[in-house]
Amino acid sequence: MRARRYGDVFFHCDQVIRGLYEPFVRDWHAAFGSYRERDRLAGLLVLRTEDLLDDPVRTRDTLLQFLGLPGSPAAESLPRPTMSYRALHVDALKKSAAQPMLNSTRALLENFYRPHNLALAALLGWAKTMAWPTSTVVGAAELK
What we know:
Helix content: 55-70%
Structural class: mainly alpha
Order of helices and strands: HHHHHH
Number of helices: 6
Number of domains: 1
Shape: globular
């Protein structure tokens, strides 16, 4: 029983650690160089899943430019994602029978992640709101 309890603690800590992108990206930039600062093949490009699903054409163009590849077919000819990032998020929560996050828990997590997300946004040259968009907040009504 004791081992299970410690395993549960590690699992929950691991979930929090997974959301700390900034320290890891900073290390990767130290190893590979920033895309903005160095030659494109030596740099590191970070793309968000949200952008791949919600703005695939612009994200594809960013990736092609980073790789030094020519433009690709017209946007109309490319397959489109079947769901937005938000819709996939809601669907995954429903399938796992997730309960809505308490407002107090969300406030604690937002305060914990805020400095890391702001540092990530600064490191990558993103708008501050890109690090944790409020569009990912899912309410109780959506989980029914």
